[in-house]
Specification:
This protein is an alpha+beta fold. The protein contains eleven helices and 22 strands. The strands form six sheets. The chain has a six-stranded mixed β-sheet with strand order 12-7-1-2-3-20, sandwiched between helices. Strands 8, 9, 10, 11 and 21 form a five-stranded antiparallel β-sheet that branches. Helix 4 packs across helix 10, helix 6 crosses helix 7 and helix 8 packs across helix 9. Bound molecules: adenosine-5'-triphosphate and magnesium ion (MG). Magnesium ion binds next to loops.
């Protein structure tokens, strides 16, 4: 029998990445094709030009189709943006017959009840992620199915997003000829791919530094406690270099990637680099340490904003595993060292792991979200096949759809 095949599209501010994968019999994700193209019409994770965004998505999808030799009919879609926010919600239900063990239907009712949150009309609930249960006052139950009790409380983490931002993303993907199986917010997807289960268990924060946004997900005892998106990323680092060095954007971008460092003190004082400049000069020589000083200032500011969000989610003592930095922006040299100083936590750079097939194409922190979307989709699939509690489920008419993995792609 053919292995289940499925697709994911990560809609970023810098790039759009479509990945087609199959689940092997050994339960491994095997990458069959990748299509990466520059992002258009997306700023800070949000659509600001529907037609341009639709074309960029379509071109990324076509590349992935060619690479994998399949037609993508539907996909799991990742998005981000500062309109994403989170809150806690507790669903409470009475068990009608306490002589019967708690069943999946009771969990479903608790989940539905947790979903009822007080949010403005212009916002949508995107995820309701169960954290733990309380059965008749017994706290921190990890799986209530089969237990006895007369009252079931489900503590959840609810992620919400701006309705119009969500609608715009949907419109773009559907306009590109692809049905949306589920919408997944960036930070949750990135955590799936870049962080180890053990790190999340001991408490960790996932920081995905993209082009226009930085996604944050805080985990305590293996469960999600806080999600946030900051409107700052690698584009702002490059923008600072344009202004400080007075050079065109492509030259600034190249200087950042080739010579950038987040800790200026680690860069030799005498070293210089020659780059394209504005004006009559044509090219000019710039001390590498100056490039690093400009980047350090921006990175420090970004990490301070991250620290404030992390503190909103959990006390530092609960985050023993520290920070996992990922996304293209995490490739700035020395960022992990600076993050350890500013966040006062251990920090490492995270990239997608445990992949087979064309995995070398995705072996970069910039692809954590793309790979995480696949893992998230698999988890949904697992939930569909297993008669166990629905550990995670998207809500709202759209988010309720679970992938019919076999119908996602067709041989070309
Ligand atoms: N080696 C590198 N050193 C420094 N910065 C890098 C490097 N490689 C990529 N970047 C930066 O990473 C950013 C893009 O990251 P990424 O691909 O994760 O963004 P995205 O997913 O498209 O955007 P977002 O998640 O914000 O919507 C760009 O600003 C780019 O300059
Ligand atoms: Mg991204």
């Amino acid at each position: 029998m053919a292995q289940p095949t499925f697709a994911a599209i990560d809609i970023g501010s810098t790039k759009i990445c479509t990945v087609v994968a199959e689940l092997t019999s050994a339960n491994e994700v095997r990458i069959l094709g990748v299509g990466v193209g520059p992002s258009q019409g997306i700023t800070r994770g949000m659509v600001d030009n529907i037609h341009a965004a639709m074309e960029a998505i379509s071109s990324s999808v076509q590349r992935a189709e060619r690479a994998a030799g399949v037609r993508i009919l539907s996909a799991h879609v990742g998005f981000t943006g500062p309109h994403v926010s989170s809150m806690s919600s507790r669903g409470i239900v009475a068990i009608s017959d306490p002589r019967q063990p708690i069943a999946e239907s009771d969990m479903d009712r608790a989940l539905e009840s947790a979903r009822i949150v007080n949010i403005p009309n212009n916002r949508e609930v995107v995820h309701v992620v169960p954290r733990y249960y309380v059965v008749d006052g017994q706290d921190h139950v990890t799986n209530a199915i089969g237990m006895f009790g007369s009252r079931l409380d489900m503590e959840t983490h609810v992620v919400t997003a701006g309705s119009s931002a969500v609608q715009n993303i949907l419109r773009c993907v559907e306009g590109a000829g692809v049905q949306v199986d589920s919408l997944i917010v960036g930070p949750l997807a990135a955590a799936e791919a870049a962080a180890e289960r053990e790190e999340l268990q001991h408490g960790a924060v996932l920081v995905d530094i993209g082009g226009g946004a930085t996604d944050i997900a805080v985990f305590v005892r293996g469960t999600l406690v806080h999600t946030a998106v900051l409107p700052v990323g690698g584009e702002q680092m490059t923008g600072d270099l344009v202004v400080a060095l007075r050079v065109p954007q492509p030259a600034a971008e190249q200087a950042k990637i080739a010579h950038g460092h987040a800790l200026a003190s680690l860069v030799d004082e005498g070293e210089t680099v020659e780059i394209d400049a504005f004006g009559a000069e044509g090219r000019k020589e710039i001390p590498k340490r100056f490039v690093a000083q400009v980047l350090q200032a921006r990175c420090e500011e970004l990490l301070e904003m991250v620290r404030a969000e992390v503190r909103r989610g959990a006390q530092t003592e609960l985050l023993a595993a520290g920070a996992v930095l990922t996304g293209g922006g995490a490739s700035v040299r020395g960022l992990d060292l600076l993050a350890e100083e500013v966040l006062e936590l251990p920090a490492r750079i995270g990239r997608p792991r445990h992949l087979a097939g064309l995995s070398d194409l995705l072996n970069d922190p910039a692809y954590s979200t793309s790979v995480g979307l696949l893992r998230w989709a698999l988890r949904e699939q697992e939930i569909m096949l297993r008669p166990a509690p629905r550990a995670r489920r998207g809500v709202g008419a759209l988010f309720r759809k679970v992938a019919q993995l076999m119908r996602v792609v067709l041989p070309q």
